[in-house]
Design brief:
By secondary structure, the protein is mainly α. The protein has six helices and no strands. α5 packs antiparallel against α6.
């Protein structure tokens, strides 16, 4: 059942984003920022954790999950380091995911020989 929940929650998030892209004049970059900020706000309101337990990877993989990770990192860093934690918490919490994306993106570019669009 975990796979089913992850599939339909992730699909619902993607469908809602597609509706925003099709029905509004919002640019993709703004929608991505909206998703990240929504994840952070839902984390701050302590709504995201129960949602994450129910949906699993369907909630943790999209940009909502990234916003929540940033929020948790900033909260932990502020609790332990004070004001300076605002600036270092998000970087510490998301460093592994960002590093993995860069490394795997680079490896894929070596394997598949990317070409510029004409």
């Amino acid at each position: 059942m975990d796979y089913v929940n992850a599939f339909w929650i992730g699909g619902l998030i993607c469908a809602l984003v597609q509706i925003l892209l099709d029905r509004t004049k919002l640019m993709p970059g703004r929608i991505m920022v909206l998703l990240v900020c929504s994840g952070a706000v839902l984390g701050a309101l302590q709504i995201y954790e129960p949602f994450l337990k129910f949906a699993g990877a369907g909630a943790s993989v999209p940009l909502l999950g990234f916003g929540n990770v940033l929020w948790k990192g900033v909260k932990e860093a502020v609790d332990s380091h004070g004001f300076i934690g605002i600036f270092m918490g998000g970087f510490k919490a998301s460093a592994v995911g960002i590093s993995a994306a860069l490394i795997f993106g680079y490896l894929a570019s070596l394997i598949f020989e990317p070409k510029m669009k004409k």
